[in-house]
Task: structure prediction
Amino acid sequence: MFFDELTPLLKEVAGHPIAFLGGFFSGLLRLNLADDPVKSWLDQQSGTPPTPPPSDSPNGKSSGPKSISID
Result:
């Protein structure tokens, strides 16, 4: 019964052991994939150009908090 629930996980591990172990250890070490050393290495491995860091505001304007008045 318990083995039936683990069967899909075991199939993924057997099919892609390096990818699974890489994800497992990055989660274990709490590595953020958006941090620079890991991100630059991933970009180099995938062959894609590096992406710019995300901005805090969705439209690129950071004017700070706005005040509203409620009547």
Notes: Residues 19 and 37 are 18 Å apart (CA to CA). The longest helix spans residues 2-15.
